[in-house]
Amino acid sequence: MPSTRASRSPRPARARVPIRRAAWAAITRQLGFAALTRHLAFAAGLAVAALLALPTVAAAHADLVDASPADRAVLSAEPQQVTLVFSERVTLALTTVAVVAPNGHRVDRGAPAAAGAGGDRIRVRLAPEPDQGTYVVAWRTTAADDGHTTSGRLTFSVGAPSGTAPATAPLGGGDRLTDAVLDVGVWLGFAGLAGLVGFAAVRLYCLPDVDASSDHHADGQAAPPAWAGLRWPAAAGWAVLVAGTLVQLLAHGPSAQGKAVSAAFDRSLLSDSLSSHVGHTLVARFLLLALIAAVGEEVLRHRRAGRAAAAVLALALALTWSETSHAPAGPLAPLALTITALHVTAMAVWAGGMACLVVLLARGKDPALVLAARRFSHLALCAVAVLAATGLYQAYREVGSVHGLTGTHYGRLVLTKATLFLLVVTVAARTHARVHRRREPANARQARRPILLELAGVTAVLVVTVLLLSTAPAHVPHPTYTGSGGPAPGAPQAPGTSAR
After folding, report:
1. Is there a contact between 173 and 500 (Cβ–Cβ < 8 Å)?
2. What CA dihedral angle connects 291, 296, 297 and 300, to 10 degrees?
3. Residues facing 125 on adjacent strands
4. Does residue 324 contact residue 278 with C-beta atoms inside 8 Å?
């Protein structure tokens, strides 16, 4: 007689569903994923509107417009304090002023304090100094709206000018290593955004649709195409974006103060960074990334309903770059913020989409991947068109003149970026045309070569973009200080003043 255990039929294997996916399944059964996506898109849209409403008309950098004592003034007695007036509000916690007496000793007493309600005027008290001669005032401050740093120096004399001015080493011109770490953080943020947005664009617009229920058979064996369960490029982009944002947040305070990179973990300096506009913007980016971590997988699993949510989330992320760029400067700031966000999003779609296709084409030889590469060519063409249009507007707005394009560092960087962009587009167009003219269908290796070449060129463009973000624009929206006791319209920059 056969045993009872042997006569039993094997029980079907139960599908192991992650708790998070089960919870989302319950929610989508109640609301429907389309309705849920509309709610998420509406919430993200409100976040976008809030970001657009934050900035006001302001200068691109906090330039010095007035000082007391004035630059090169000769006084009969030492003043009790020095007052500096800037073209816009400054972050007081990230402002440093050093006053050096003729004998080389610092005579500034205490931290800078506000000298009015507008936030654009600061003062520092001076200790009594018996020596007469030339004093040097060195300052370094951060604009309250975009977080960009400016620095400079002026002199005044008591009794009569000295033969030589004392050195102002306490402030210097900033720490190069700290500035480089900050630039690396910004670049990592761009790279992570490209990986995240590019993967979503390829998955939702270029790859064939794969039914969410066909990811696995009942016995747990994988059966779908190579891309069906592919999630790690998006996860890697998300992680790189988190890391880049964290590096940017930690390095912002030390870079603004001209301190060494070791000051990144100074609790008081980190608190000052978090309380600034840049800190608020980076925290908003972290919150958006947390939202993407919660809903991103479900967005990718539903092609039609997920496209709108993915587009809104991508634009909301891009707006966090707009808020810390030169976009808040000057009139029509909401329009400039929107155009900058479109520019960043188009760059992410183009660069990240190419990187995603390289990964996919290296995984398998499915003909559908080659078809996806051809579909991406059309998406990339749209992204390039948006990049060209928004880039022209940004160049016109930030440069303002032919002289600004050729006679300033910012203008030359714009020319370099435009040249690299045109070169990449020209080479890519010729390479893709050569591939499409072939009679036989291209294989995965042939389709990957032009994408790799294009990706290398876009990487160079992104490097120049990071340099542009840390450089003062060519135009000067506010009068700058000339040392004669008042502003001078149209002056290019105050002597001894630098900007980051």
Report:
1. no
2. 160
3. 81, 109
4. yes
3-state secondary structure of 210: coil
Residues pairing with 126 in the sheet: 108
Return the number of other C-beta atoms located less than 10 Å from residue 114's C-beta: 14
Fill in the amino acid letter for 191. A
In this prediction, residues 446-468 reach a mean pLDDT of 72
**Spatial separation of the C-alpha atoms in residues 163 and 358, rounded to whole Å:** 65
E strand map for 188-320: none
Q: In this model, does residue 260 exceed pLDDT 50?
A: yes
* Of 253, 234, 291, 224, the residue nearest 37 (C-alpha): 291
Mean local confidence (pLDDT), 286-307: 84
* Short-list 343, 289, 350, 287, CA closest to 469: 343
**What is the maximum alpha-carbon separation in the chain?**
119
Q: Are β-strands 96-100 and 133-142 bridged in parallel, bridged antiparallel, or unpaired?
A: antiparallel
Mean pLDDT for the chain overall: 74
Are 152 and 498 contacting, i.e. CB atoms less than 8 angstroms apart?
Answer: yes
Between the CA of residue 454 and those of 190, 331, 354, 358, 427, what are the distances in Å? Answer: 17, 36, 8, 11, 8
CA distance 40 to 46: 10
CA pair distance 79, 70, nearest whole angstrom: 12
Which tens digit of pLDDT belongs to each residue from 263-287?
888 888 888 888 888 889 999 999 9
| Token couple for 220 | 């747990």
Closest CA relative to residue 189, chosen from 254, 306, 286:
286
Which residues lie closer than 8 Å to 129 by C-beta, 6 or more apart?
A: 78, 101, 103, 105, 107
Local confidence band at 83 (pLDDT 50, 70, 90 cut-offs): very high
**In this predicted structure, what is the pLDDT of residue 402?**
72
Q: Is 140 helix (H, G, I), strand (E, B) or coil?
A: strand
pTM of the predicted protein model? 0.69
Instruction: With cut-offs at 50, 70 and 90, classify the pLDDT of residue 248.
Output: very high
Cβ(498)–Cβ(150) below 8 Å: yes
Alpha carbon of 431 to those of 11, 434, 458: distances in Å? Answer: 56, 5, 15
